[in-house]
């Protein structure tokens, strides 16, 4: 799903939930077209509380997510260092084996895979 469309969907879902929550908490009767004084104050407080809560939660989420991302990056970097160290050790072992073979007067033979042709007939 397109990230912009996803963000819009999430926003509208959140907006609808806040509207429903604050309406059910604050609107007592539907006799008048306009909100009464107490209803207006209640809706304002409800939305403000929700916005503050949401802002606080997002701050905590960003802090926690930053910590998680930092740990993941450290793990990736550590794994890359270990892999590079292992490759280096493998190359050193390979070079040591070649040196020992040359010193002993023997050649190291590397098998060559057989050539394959497109037309194999039997």
Automatic annotation (TrEMBL):
InterPro entries given in the database record: Mito_inner_translocase_sub, Tim10-like, Tim10-like_dom_sf
Gene3D superfamilies: Mitochondrial import inner membrane translocase subunit tim13 like domains
Coiled-coil intervals, chain numbering: none
Domain of life of the source: Eukaryota
Keyword match Cell inner membrane: no
Topological relation to the membrane, as annotated: Peripheral membrane protein
Annotated stretches, region: Disordered: 79-122
Keywords: Chaperone, Disulfide bond, Membrane, Metal-binding, Mitochondrion, Mitochondrion inner membrane, Protein transport, Translocation, Transport, Zinc
Protein localization: Mitochondrion inner membrane
Residue ranges annotated for the Tim10-like domain, each copy included: 6-61
Any GO CC annotation of this UniProt entry: mitochondrial inner membrane
GO biological process, one term: protein transport
Biased composition range(s): Basic and acidic residues: 79-101
Family listed: Belongs to the small Tim family.
Purpose of the protein: Mitochondrial intermembrane chaperone that participates in the import and insertion of some multi-pass transmembrane proteins into the mitochondrial inner membrane. Also required for the transfer of beta-barrel precursors from the TOM complex to the sorting and assembly machinery (SAM complex) of the outer membrane. Acts as a chaperone-like protein that protects the hydrophobic precursors from aggregation and guide them through the mitochondrial intermembrane space.
Assembly, per entry: Heterohexamer.
UniProt name for this protein: Mitochondrial import inner membrane translocase subunit
Native species: Drosophila madeirensis (Fruit fly)
Organism phylogeny: Eukaryota, Metazoa, Ecdysozoa, Arthropoda, Hexapoda
